[in-house]
Amino acid sequence: MIRKPKFLTLLLAAVLLCGSSASAYESQGKFGLIPQPRSLKEGQGSYMFNRFTVAYEPGNAELAGIADLFGQKVTPATGLPFVTVTSPKKANVVFVLAADTTLGAEGYRLSVTPKGVTITAQEPAGIFYGMQTLLQLLPEEIKSPALAEGVAWTVPAVEIADKPRFAWRGMMLDVSRHWFTKEEVKRFIDEMAEYKMNRFHWHLTDDQGWRIRIDALPRLTEVGAWRAPRVGDWWGREPQRPGEAATYGGFYSKADIAEVVEYARRRYVTIMPEIDVPGHSVAALAAYPELACMQAPEAVNVGNKFYGIDENSLCIGGAKTMEYMEKIFAEVAEMFPGEYIHVGGDECFKGFWAKCPKCTKLMREKGLKDVNALQSWFIHEMEGLLKAKGKKLVGWDEIHEGGLTPEATVMSWRGMKGGILAAEQGHHVIMTPDNHCYIDLYQGEPTVEPNTYSMCRLTDSYNWDPVPAGIDPSYIIGGQGNLWAESVPTFRHAEYMAWPRGWALAEVFWTDGQLKDWPGFVRRVEKHFRRADAADVNHARSMYNAIVTTEADSLGTLRVSLATEIPGLEIYYSFDNTIPDLHGLKYTVPVVVPLNASRITVATYRGTEPVGALIRLEVKDLKARAVKSERVIGNI
Ligand code: ACM
Ligand code: ZN
């Protein structure tokens, strides 16, 4: 809905949202904004807050909510008075809703002059994003009362015109593999909203826990939310022992869900719940064994190996399966006001279906030629069921198997190919390719990171385009960072994995691709590290660590290459078991491992300051990770 400015006459300059001035300033890290706005023009001077007086259209509840959030963010550290007023003349921050089609549904203009601040938008969401930009322009001490003494609360004069590239700017949190409380989930949502992310994909069910109360099927949480407590590496764990108490876990009540939905709504974040079926269903099968083909697992999985050995897929031909799906999705649809529900569909092991009398009977009756067709039939049923409840279906890219359902939105995770195929068939796509968006993967040298698998560096998250060449961009509705939690046992560690890669993705999804700028982004990230420190938000500094790669030739000669992910660092190394520093060997070109050396030690510096983790790698491990080289390598 477009509103005319009722309480302020405002002449809107017809400035097109196409400025490119942002990158020049931002490459100096001056304004430090993430995501980078479309157009930014530096003004003269600054505005200093001695109090916060916010004016908005009287009676507008949405704007009142945004003003209230602004107050919650600025008063703890500043201790300054905060009031809302109706007259813009008495305000130092003015929210204006005005017709300006160049801004779209989420765009905004932010004007800071020595006289005050104005945020203009067509819709309240735009005002919210303008408010987030204003918060980022305030000194980082705004995040911490403990640091705030003596700080002048000034904001540099600036004219910003901004709007997002994609409508879907998401983050996913897996609360099944490890349990996160509703307070932690709220904190995660607040942290992503600060970076203008607007979709929270809540992965609520999986083999290791069912986390959402369904009144009609209470055992889903009475049994499915609990497993035996375990620590240690995922997949290396001992299964639940006979008679052992299942004491680890938790679930969200309906009141909890309502609270989180409302918390997210106030931050312009829509929640998409995921009920992952028909695979990834050990927790559901343990709760209701009648959902299994032949033999349900006795307990919720603790992180021990089971795939293809024990059943974890719903029996599609089972008498109760569709009845239970109807009950589950009816309650889920009622709890979440957003238009999408994610039904999973990924990594479904279909081996038990092929042997199951109930599944094979259904396949015969429906004329389904194989188990892929059976999965596709099931997803069709889910689509119909959701449609009857006014919801749209999202599924992982495996829902291609056996044929896509007519209106499915595909979440492409095995690279972009599933998304490309879907877009070519006229389906909407959310891009979450694992090599760019899986923020549960290593983000730097694995020997100095907590255990996980594969690699997705900050550069991988930053340097990619969600719209593949040759694909109609209108089908790509956006993208998302996915935080799977197999190796994420605490919320502190969830933050460590999420930031700064989530900031990179926020910029990929918001900022015009041509304005992206890696060196400038790195400088801005460093500012945001300080903000995160002040806010006690955990984050990873893995971008400072050296990248170590090795090559071996046919004679077994090993050559090591060292690199850094970010510009402006120097690398020092040793092969003599000492700790390298500024006085040690400075890396310039690839080096051959000396005879009898047992390890390499690597440090990174910026000027005289050590910045990265000290990396120690045994020569036998260097050999193990070496790529084969054609050439016989000599000393160079
Ligand atoms: C997935 O990573 N299994 C969607
Ligand atoms: Zn079956």
Detailed description of the structure:
The protein has 636 residues and is of the alpha/beta class. It is built from 18 helices and 28 strands. Strands 8-9-14-15-16-17-18-19 form an 8-stranded parallel β-barrel, surrounded by 7 helices. It has a 7-stranded mixed sheet with strand order 1-7-5-6-4-2-3. Strands 22, 23, 25, 26 and 27 form a 5-stranded antiparallel sheet that branches. The radius of gyration is 27 Å and the shape is globular. Acetamide (ACM) binds next to loops.
Tell me the helix content. 25-40%
Distance between the termini: 67 Å
Taking all residues together, what is the mean pLDDT? 94
Which descriptor suits the 3D outline? globular
Class by SSE composition: alpha/beta
Low-confidence stretches: 1-23
In terms of DSSP E residues, the strand content is 15-25%
How many β-strands, per DSSP? 28
How many distinct helices? Answer: 18
Spatial sequence of strands, sheet with the most strands = 8-9-14-15-16-17-18-19
- Describe the main β-sheet briefly: 8 strands, parallel, barrel
What is the CA-based Rg, rounded?
A: 27 Å
Hetero groups bound?
acetamide, zinc ion
